[in-house]
Amino acid sequence: MRDNDCIFCKIAAGEIPSATLYEDEDFRVILDLGPATKGHALILPKEHYRNLYDIDDEMAAKAMILAKKMVKKMTDVLGCDGYNIVQNNEEPAGQTVFHFHMHLIPRYKEDNAGIGWNVGELTDEVRDEILKKMK
Ligand code: AMP
Ligand code: ZN
Fold first, then answer.
1. Which ligand sits nearest to residue 105's alpha carbon?
2. What is the pLDDT of residue 2?
3. How many CB atoms lie within 10 A of CB 47?
4. For the chain, how long is the longest CA-to-CA vector?
5. Catalytic pick among 40, 48, 101, 103
6. Rounded mean pLDDT of 39-53?
7. Does residue 15 contact residue 82 with C-beta atoms inside 8 Å?
8. Which residues have CB under 6 Å of ligand 1?
């Protein structure tokens, strides 16, 4: 299934040119046009899934296995010092393209890429509330 209005469907299908690092029958891996660091790449499934809520289990598993393979290979190629895997779901979480994708972001010592969050505090009240609801 694909979405004719989706830019990542078109890129994944090869209808829009991209800097492709890897391709197989299920995925295309491309360089991000607005990289956080040198080598920032995106894993795109060729099928259209809106995000993690939508993707089927088999493809989600394959995406993570591919992420592992790409991270290992690209660490050798780029000589980076670490990696972030980022995957945004829905607008409040920073998703801007609504076709499932995983960001593979190489990290370099003192790259100041600014990926992170403000560290809060887990209160007893919130901990208990969540644990109760999860049962
Ligand atoms: P997200 O905010 O998680 O939805 O990420 C979307 C990402 O797609 C951003 O990092 C953009 O820089 C990247 N992006 C958008 N359009 C393109 C494109 N045509 N080719 C490559 N990367 C793109
Ligand atoms: Zn799509």
1. 1
2. 74
3. 17
4. 52
5. 101
6. 98
7. no
8. 7, 11, 18, 30, 32-34, 42, 88, 94-97
